[in-house]
């Protein structure tokens, strides 16, 4: 066992927290033009609004570490759909179709489905209360 293994829960939590904050940032661009407006002319199409709702809800749940696994499952699937519907149609290579962030989000959330939230989560507080 590596000396670093004992820090795995904290590393997973850091991945969870930073990834969810970045996901929430995408939603706030859609709905609140913060930190900048989403570069799209006119009103947002319904599929983008739906994606934004999923981003803000799952992003917040994952940030808090609450219902992390199901939220990560939904977030991962949403990012896979975003890639295949929005980016892959623009060409094969992710670096050229700007799909790299969607792929990275998809797989970061995919990992959280299996690892759980790591340290510093409401899921672990709920689990400890249930055990007591």
UniProtKB/TrEMBL annotation:
Q: Which residues cross the membrane?
A: 7-24, 44-64, 71-90, 102-122
Q: Which family does it belong to?
A: Belongs to the DoxX family.
Keyword Transmembrane helix found: yes
* Species of the source: Sphingomonas arvum
Its subcellular locations are: Cell membrane
For membrane topology, the record states: Multi-pass membrane protein
Q: Could you tell me the keywords of this UniProt record?
A: Cell membrane, Membrane, Transmembrane, Transmembrane helix
Main location (coarse class): membrane
What's the protein name? DoxX family protein
């Amino acid at each position: 066992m590596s000396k670093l293994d004992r820090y795995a829960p904290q590393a997973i939590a850091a991945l969870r927290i930073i990834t969810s904050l970045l996901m929430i940032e995408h939603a706030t661009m859609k709905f609140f033009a913060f930190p900048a407006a989403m570069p799209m002319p006119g009103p947002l199409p319904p599929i983008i609004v739906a994606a934004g709702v999923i981003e803000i809800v799952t992003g917040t749940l994952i940030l808090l570490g609450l219902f992390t696994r199901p939220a990560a499952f939904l977030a991962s699937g949403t990012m896979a759909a975003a890639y295949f519907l929005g980016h892959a149609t623009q060409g094969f290579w992710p670096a050229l179709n700007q799909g790299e962030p969607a792929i990275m989000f998809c797989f970061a959330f995919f990992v959280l489905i299996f690892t759980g939230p790591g340290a510093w989560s409401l899921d672990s507080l709920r689990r400890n209360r249930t055990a007591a």
